[in-house]
Amino acid sequence: MSSNDATPVREDSSASASLDPLASITAERDQLAADKAELHDRFLRGQAEFQNLRKRVERERSELFEYASMEAVKELLPILDNFERAVSIDCSDEEYAKGMKLIYQNFYDTLKKLGLEPITSLDQPFDPHFHHAIEMVETEDKPDHTIIGEFQRGYNFKGRLLRPAMVKVAVQQAAK
Question: What is the chain's Cα-based Rg?
Fold first, then answer.
């Protein structure tokens, strides 16, 4: 019986020995597949981070150019104001006045192409986000907090406030 007991033990040990390399190869294959999946995931995350970085840098660059344009246009606004004043004054030389109007219009159109947008103020309700009240006038002719005069035109640049309009605002007369 000892010999019978020994034989089956040998068969079991040889069967388990033949299963160990298969199990080892299967475990190694599973580990390699997991490593591959992890590396692929890291690669995809790296690509996504790179794309996000590229988009952020492009957006920041665009904002920088827009800000630089905004500052340049802001510096040109006093010149535009002076042209408006010069064009509004009567001049005895019609050709000179016509030339000034043409230069003003060309300058104004160029600034509009860059993104300058005038703020409409007269007869509009006062909005502290777009208007700077310089004078408050008691009147019954206009509704309360209506703009009745404009000292200096306000402008937006590509949807952002560049300069608020300096205005005169109507207020209702106090009851006597």
Answer: 40
